[in-house]
Design brief:
Elements: H1 7-14, H2 18-25, H3 35-47, E1 65-70, H4 74-79, H5 81-96, E2 100-104, E3 118-122, H6 127-136, E4 140-143, E5 153-157, H7 159-171, E6 178-186, E7 193-195, H8 197-208, E8 217-220, H9 224-238, E9 245-248, H10 251-263, E10 273-278, E11 291-295, H11 297-314, E12 321-324, E13 326-329
Parallel strand pairs: 1-2, 1-3, 3-4, 4-5, 5-12, 6-8, 6-9, 9-10, 10-11
Antiparallel strand pairs: 6-7, 11-13
Helix pairs in contact: 1-2, 1-3, 3-5, 5-11, 7-8, 9-10
Length: 336
């Protein structure tokens, strides 16, 4: 059974006030709180959404060793809980299977043991980075990046279908002018610019309906601050022509966009409706709560571990790609 986290649960676990938890989860940078406390609040918020393991059995068999390579730094991971959630799901599966899992952040391969059985890489990586990991072990699994064409197992999300569902959601409610806030970023070595696949899917879907308007599209960097800044820009540029609906491609940016709308006296959902993506803990701790595309990040992490076990146990050499489906979760930010 999945344990539903509340602000009170988190506050009691960390030993801080309800107000502190609320302000941290809403990215209130004016709050004076240590980075370690902030980190603990985010981690507890995510962990309380997972099943608690009652015991850890011992095994006499040779213990597998998996290195988790997270492309985000520890600090940046807190700003986008999507990747933290994948990592926690992955580590939970390793614990269930009695697999030794070690972590490295910001693609730090120097921290990876040379005798690991496999590497599970979370995030986006350039080809030189992929080749560097392949030097450590041929058993690579990529989560949230499709590396099938390069011969590696991959676990991805169906962005195309999810975005179509969001557009359909608004379309069925006669909201045909849909704004977009999306993200773009680079791999840690600066070699590969990663364009948001949801932007491509959104543009394709809207063009098919003869409704794509580049003036309603704004690019950020997936952070809460960029969501705030880009919505401020949209409000300033569009004025009364601000669309009635916005699709925002991750929860931190949606939270920032929500703040900008509040500050400008623009009511959500009465004047502008927001639909976010990923459905991390943040979506449930802002006001109004965010409608969001739910991505089963725990399953993505667990599936990556399953693929490693399958490859090592069967000797499989043919690469596989597993696509994890999504679900639209409607909350207050899109209610009539």
């Amino acid at each position: 059974m999945v344990i539903a986290a509340t602000l009170k649960d988190i506050a009691q676990s960390v030993g801080v006030s309800l107000a502190t938890v609320s302000r941290v989860l809403n990215y209130d940078r004016t709050l004076s709180v240590s980075e370690s406390t902030r980190k603990q609040i985010f981690e507890v918020a995510e962990e309380l959404n997972y099943t608690k393991l009652k015991h850890r059995a011992s095994s006499s068999a040779k213990q597998l060793k998996i290195a988790i390579v997270q492309w985000y730094s520890k600090t940046k991971e807190l700003d986008d809980l999507y990747y933290m959630s994948i990592r926690l799901g992955l580590e939970k599966r390793c614990e269930q299977r009695h697999i030794l899992a070690t972590r490295s952040f910001q693609n730090d391969l120097q921290a990876v043991d040379t005798d690991v059985d496999a590497i599970i890489a979370i995030g986006k990586f350039s080809q030189p980075q992929v080749e560097a990991m392949a030097q450590l072990t041929p058993n690579l699994v990529f989560v949230d990046q499709d590396q099938l064409c390069h011969g590696y197992d991959s676990v991805v999300t169906d962005f195309q279908f999810a975005v179509k569902e969001v557009v359909d959601f608004f379309w069925q409610r006669d909201q045909h002018r849909i704004g977009l806030l999306y993200g773009t970023e680079w791999t840690t070595d600066g070699e590969l610019e990663v364009i948001d696949p949801r932007y491509k899917a959104f543009k394709q879907e809207m063009m098919a309906r003869d409704a794509f308007d580049s003036d309603l599209v704004f690019a950020g960097d997936y952070t809460n601050h960029s969501g705030y800044q880009e919505m401020q820009t949209a409000i300033a540029q569009l004025g009364d022509d601000l669309p009635d609906a916005f699709f925002v491609t991750n929860d931190p940016m949606a939270g920032g966009a929500l703040k900008a709308l509040h500050e400008n006296g623009i009511a959500v959902p009465e004047r502008v409706k927001l639909f976010s993506f990923n459905d991390t803990t943040i979506a449930k701790y802002v006001f109004p709560e965010l409608s969001s595309v739910h991505v089963n990040t725990e399953l993505m992490g667990a599936t990556a571990v399953d693929m490693v076990e399958n490859r090592l146990q069967t000797g499989r050499s043919t690469p596989q790609r597993i696509t994890v489906g999504t679900e639209l979760i409607q909350r207050e930010s899109t209610l009539k």
